[in-house]
Design a protein that fits this description.
Strand order of the largest sheet of chain B: 11-10-9-8-7-12-13
Oligomer: heterodimer
Low-confidence stretches of chain B: 299-309
Largest sheet of chain A: 5 strands, antiparallel
Number of helices of chain A: 16
CATH superfamily of the largest domain in chain B: ATP-grasp fold, B domain
Strand content of chain B: 15-25%
Distance between the termini of chain A: 44 Å
Largest sheet of chain B: 7 strands, antiparallel
Shape of chain B: globular
Largest interface: A-B, 37 and 49 residues
Radius of gyration of chain B: 20 Å
Structural class of chain A: alpha+beta
CATH class of the largest domain in chain B: Alpha Beta
Radius of gyration of chain A: 29 Å
CATH topology of the largest domain in chain B: D-amino Acid Aminotransferase, Chain A, domain 1
Helix content of chain B: 25-40%
Structural class of chain B: alpha+beta
Helix content of chain A: 40-55%
Chain lengths: 524, 309
C-alpha cells in the first residue's frame, strides 16, 4: 500500500473517532438536559488592608448556605485583625466585623468556602418572605451616592415608564424591561452608578442593577442591590450584582444583566443584600483595600455525592477551572502546529523553528495585542543589540545563549515592571513562557543575519510574526477554547488535518513566484 | 494573461515544465529514494571522505580531524607543514563555517576576502565548529582541516574570490541536472546561491554553461568581473559525471547533489554531497528536474504530483 493510501485510511479513522465522540457527547447531553451535575465550588476571598487605624471597623460579607446547596467546608485566616462573625440585623446575612489590633501594618483576611451542589434539575430561587418595619422600609427607599433617586432625570425616566400602567407589578415589569433591554450592556464601561447609566442608556452589570434599584426606589418600592456569585460554568467569576424588590411582603429577585425576572436560578449565591461592595468600611476610614474574589469549580471532585463513571474521564468540564485552562492551552498548541504547517508547507512562509510561532502566540494570549507588541519589540530590539555586542566577546554556544537569556529576562522584568507602573499589569503566567522563545528567536535571527543576510533574517522573522499573528487570532477566539473543552476529540480531527498537510506534495504558494524565471517566456 | 506580463506562474505551467516543488522533493524524492540510515554518509564529511577513499574517488587531502577541545591547542603544529589549508565543520551545511586560509607561514593567515586571522581567531573558529555552531541540528561536531584547492584557470578569469564548484544532481545514480556555482563578493567567497553566489546552468550532455541566476534574477555577466558566463566549456566534464555516478553508487542514495571542484592540476575531486539538494538549480537551467528524471527513469507521472489535501 502506498503511503498516501495508508495516510488516507488513518485520516478517515481519526475523523470517524472524532464524529463518534461528538455523537456520544450529544446523546449524553440530551439525557442529562436540564440537570445540574453534582459539583463542589470553592469561593476564595483574599483581602489586604493598608492604613487601617485602630477603631476603624470593616465589615466583610460572607456566603451562606443556600437552598440549592450547603457550605461543606469553610476556612478563615486573618492576621492583625480581631474578628467576630455576626448576622446583619436587617438582611440576615452573615458578616465578619473586623477591627485592627496591630497599628500601621498590612492586615489581611483570607477565606475559602466550599459549596456543594447535588445533581438535580435547575430550579428557581423562591422569593424570600420577610416583614419590613418602618425603619427598614425607609432604609431600602433611601437615596445613595450611586443610587441617585432624587435626580430629575431619574424621575423623568420613571414618569415615562409609569404613565401607561398604574399597578405596581406592571411598573416593576416596565422598570425591569427598561433596565434589561433598553440599557445597553457594556462590560468595559468605566462608571457604575445609576444616574450615568440611565442618562447614557449604557452601562455595566453593576450600573444596570443600580439603575433598576434607583427607579424602584424613586417609585416608592423598597429595593436593594444584592451582591454574590453565580455558580455556573463561565469564565468570569467576579462578584455579580442583581436586584431584590420588596412587594407583597416578599423579596423578589431580578437580574437585569442576565435577564431573570422575579425568579433567579438556585445557583445564585448571595453574599450581601444591602450594597454592591463585599467589603465595607466606615465612611471616615481612609484605609486602602485590595480585595480579590474568585470561584473555582470542583477543586477536588466530590466522589461521595455521585457515582463515578468511567466515561467521566472524557468530560474535561468537570475539572477545576485552572486545570481546564491549562488543558485548553496544550490543546491549542496542536491547532497552532496546524496553522504553522499550513503556512510553511502550503503557503511556503519561512519561520524560525517549527513551534516558535504558536508558542509565541500563546505567550500573548493573556496580553492585549498592543501591550504584547510593545514588550515583544523592546525585548527583541535590545536583545538583538545585545547579541551583536556579544559576538565580539567570542563566547561558546551554551554560555552565550545563557547571556542572551539574561538580556531577555532583564528586559522582560523591566518591561513588566514598567507596565505595572503604567497601570497595565500583565498576568504572571504571561511572563514565564516567552523567555526561552525570545532567546532562541534572537539567537536564530542573529545567526541568519550573519550567515545569510539581514534581509533574509528579516524575511524569516516577518514570516514567523505573520504565522504567529494568525495563531494568535485563532487563540483569541474564546469560542475555540469552549469548543475544545467541550469536545476535546476535535484534537483528533486537527491531527487528521495535519496528516493531510503532511502528504501534500503540490507546489507551495511562494514557489509560484520563485520559479517564474525557470519557465522561458514566450518568444525566447 | 501571458506569462511575460505576470510575476507569477500557474501550478499547471510549472507541472508542464517538470518543475519540482519542495513538498514533492521531500515526499517523492528524499523519503522514497534516500534511506534514512544513509544520511550520515553525506551529512558527515569525515564519513564522506572515508567512503570516497574506499571506492577510489578523489577528494581533497585531509590534514587533520579535530574532535576534542583539547586538540585545538595543537593547531599550530597541525598547520605548520602547509602554506594553505581549509577548515570546515564535518556536519556543516550551506557552506557555513568554512574557513579558507592562505599564507599560513606568516604571522597572520589571510582569507579570500582579504581579512587577516590570528591563531586565536582560528582557534575560536574551531571551537565554534566543535560546539555545533555550524552543524545540522546544532549537535557537537568535528572540524576537518584539509587541502586548499587551487583554482582552475578556466574559473580564475570569471570570478574574483572564493572557490566555484559544480553541483550534479543524480537520480538513481544517473546525473539529471548540473549547475556551476560561482562565488561573489557579496557571498563572501561562498558558492551557495542563498548567500549571494551565482548559479550557472550546465548542459548535462556536453558540460557547456547555459543561463545564470543571481539572487533569483536572470543575469548574463558575473556581478564582480563582468565576464559573460554563457557557453563556457567546463573542463574534465566526462570525469565529473563519472565521479558523480560512482559517488552516488557508493553511498547508495537515489537522489543527491554531489559537489565537485576542479583542482588546477589533478582535475575534479568530490568536495561534499548533499542529501537535500536545493531546487534553485532548476532556475539556473531553466527547466524542471522532473523532465530529466522522466527521461532516465520509469518514475511515473501518476504519483509525482498527487495531492491529498
Amino acid at each position: 500500500m502506498t503511503e498516501n493510501r495508508i495516510s488516507f485510511i488513518v485520516v478517515l479513522i481519526l475523523l470517524a473517532a472524532t464524529s463518534l465522540g461528538i455523537f456520544v457527547r450529544f446523546r449524553m447531553q440530551e439525557e442529562t438536559a436540564g440537570q445540574i451535575p453534582s459539583s463542589v465550588w470553592r469561593i476564595f476571598y483574599q483581602i489586604t488592608f493598608t492604613k487601617l487605624r485602630s477603631g476603624n471597623q470593616v465589615r466583610i460579607a460572607l456566603p451562606d448556605t443556600i437552598p440549592a446547596g450547603r457550605i461543606s467546608r469553610e476556612s478563615i485566616d486573618y492576621s492583625g485583625l480581631s474578628i467576630s462573625i455576626l448576622r446583619n440585623r436587617r438582611t440576615k446575612c452573615r458578616e465578619v466585623v473586623a477591627v485592627p489590633v496591630w497599628k500601621d501594618s498590612t492586615l489581611s483576611f483570607n477565606a475559602e468556602f466550599d459549596i456543594q451542589i447535588p445533581r438535580r434539575g435547575i430550579n428557581a430561587l423562591s422569593p424570600l418572605k420577610s416583614p419590613l418595619d418602618t425603619e427598614d422600609r425607609a432604609f431600602f427607599l433611601r437615596s445613595e451616592t450611586d443610587i441617585q433617586i432624587e435626580n430629575q432625570s431619574v424621575i423623568d425616566i420613571l414618569a415615562k415608564l409609569s404613565d401607561t400602567d398604574k399597578a405596581q407589578s406592571g411598573l416593576i415589569s416596565n422598570i425591569f424591561e427598561f433596565c434589561a433591554e433598553d440599557i445597553n450592556l457594556d462590560t468595559e464601561c468605566s462608571y457604575g452608578d445609576a444616574l450615568t447609566t440611565l442618562l447614557n442608556k449604557r452601562g455595566n452589570g453593576k450600573g444596570k442593577a443600580k439603575a433598576m434599584v434607583a427607579l424602584c426606589r424613586a417609585s416608592r418600592i423598597p429595593a436593594r442591590v444584592v451582591t454574590g456569585f453565580v455558580l455556573e460554568k463561565r469564565y468570569d467569576f467576579s462578584p455579580h450584582l442583581w436586584v431584590g424588590v420588596y412587594t407583597k411582603k416578599q423579596w423578589f429577585s431580578y437580574d437585569p444583566e442576565y435577564g431573570y425576572f422575579a425568579k433567579i436560578p438556585e445557583t445564585y449565591i448571595s453574599v450581601r443584600k444591602d450594597g454592591a461592595a463585599i467589603v465595607k468600611t466606615g465612611k471616615s476610614t481612609k484605609a486602602g483595600i485590595d480585595s480579590r474574589f474568585s470561584v473555582e469549580l470542583n477543586p477536588h471532585r466530590l466522589t461521595a455525592a455521585t457515582r463515578k463513571h468511567i466515561l467521566d474521564i472524557f468530560d474535561l468540564t468537570r475539572l477545576s477551572m485552572s486545570m481546564q485552562e491549562t488543558l485548553v492551552i496544550i490543546m491549542l498548541l496542536v491547532v497552532g502546529a496546524f496553522v504553522t504547517a499550513v503556512f510553511r508547507n502550503m503557503i511556503g512562509v519561512k519561520t524560525f523553528g517549527t513551534f516558535t510561532p504558536s508558542l509565541l502566540a500563546l505567550s500573548f494570549v493573556y496580553k492585549d495585542i498592543l501591550t504584547g507588541f510593545i514588550v515583544f519589540s523592546v525585548v527583541l530590539l535590545i536583545g538583538v543589540a545585545g547579541r551583536i555586542t556579544l559576538s565580539h566577546l567570542r563566547l561558546l554556544l551554551v554560555p552565550r545563549l545563557g547571556v542572551v537569556l539574561g538580556f531577555v529576562v532583564i528586559c522582560l522584568v523591566l518591561s513588566v515592571s514598567l507596565l505595572a507602573y503604567l497601570g497595565l499589569t500583565p498576568s504572571a503566567h504571561a511572563v514565564l513562557l516567552p523567555t526561552v522563545i525570545f532567546t532562541m528567536l534572537i539567537e536564530r535571527f542573529h545567526i541568519t543575519w550573519e550567515e545569510q543576510s539581514f534581509n533574509n533574517a528579516l524575511k524569516i522573522f516577518c514570516g514567523t510574526l505573520a504565522t504567529s499573528v494568525v495563531c494568535l487570532a485563532v487563540f483569541k477566539i474564546r469560542k475555540v477554547w469552549w469548543v475544545l473543552l467541550e469536545y476535546p476529540e476535535l484534537v483528533l480531527a486537527v491531527v487528521a488535518l495535519l496528516i493531510l498537510v503532511g502528504r501534500y506534495s503540490g507546489y507551495r504558494l511562494t514557489e509560484l513566484l520563485r520559479f517564474k524565471s525557470a519557465i522561458p517566456a514566450k518568444g525566447e | 494573461m501571458a506569462i511575460n506580463n505576470r510575476f507569477w506562474v500557474w501550478p499547471w505551467e510549472m507541472k508542464q515544465h517538470g518543475l519540482l516543488g519542495i513538498n514533492a522533493r521531500n515526499l517523492n524524492m528524499l523519503f522514497r529514494q534516500n534511506d534514512r540510515s544513509r544520511y550520515p554518509m553525506v551529512d558527515n564529511k569525515v564519513l564522506t571522505k572515508e567512503i570516497c577513499r574506499r571506492y577510489g574517488i578523489r577528494t581533497p587531502e585531509t590534514y587533520a580531524v579535530i574532535s576534542r577541545y583539547g586538540d585545538i591547542k595543537n593547531i599550530r603544529e597541525c598547520l605548520k607543514p602547509y602554506s594553505e589549508a581549509v577548515i570546515k565543520p564535518a556536519h556543516g551545511s550551506g557552506g557555513e563555517g568554512i574557513l579558507l586560509l592562505k599564507s599560513l607561514c606568516s604571522e597572520k593567515a589571510k582569507t579570500p576576502d582579504g581579512s587577516f586571522l590570528s591563531e586565536v581567531d582560528i582557534r575560536y573558529h574551531i571551537s565554534g565548529i566543535l560546539s555545533g555552531l555550524y552543524s545540522l541540528g546544532g549537535q557537537t561536531d568535528s572540524a576537518i582541516i584539509e587541502q586548499y584547492i587551487n583554482l582552475h584557470p578556466v574559473f580564475s578569469r570569471i570570478i574574483g574570490i572564493g572557490m566555484p564548484d559544480i553541483r550534479i544532481i543524480t537520480f538513481k545514480c544517473r546525473p539529471v541536472m548540473s549547475m556551476l556555482r560561482l562565488p561573489t563578493q557579496t557571498s563572501k567567497g561562498k558558492a551557495n546561491l542563498h548567500q549571494g553566489g551565482v548559479g550557472v546552468g550546465v548542459n548535462i550532455e556536453d558540460g557547456i554553461t547555459t543561463h545564470a541566476i543571481h539572487n533569483g534574477q536572470i543575469i548574463s555577466c558575473h556581478p564582480d568581473t563582468g565576464v559573460v558566463m554563457k557557453n563556457i566549456k567546463i573542463p574534465f566534464w566526462d570525469d565529473i559525471l563519472d565521479i558523480a555516478i560512482r559517488f552516488s553508487k557508493a553511498v547508495e542514495m537515489g537522489y543527491i547533489g554531489v559537489d565537485i571542484v576542479i583542482e588546477a592540476v589533478n582535475g575534479p575531486v568530490v568536495l561534499e554531497a548533499n542529501a537535500r539538494p536545493g531546487l534553485s538549480i532548476q532556475l539556473a537551467n531553466r527547466f524542471g528536474l522532473l523532465t530529466g528524471i522522466h527521461d532516465c527513469d520509469e518514475y511515473g507521472h501518476t504519483d509525482n504530483q498527487d495531492t491529498l489535501a
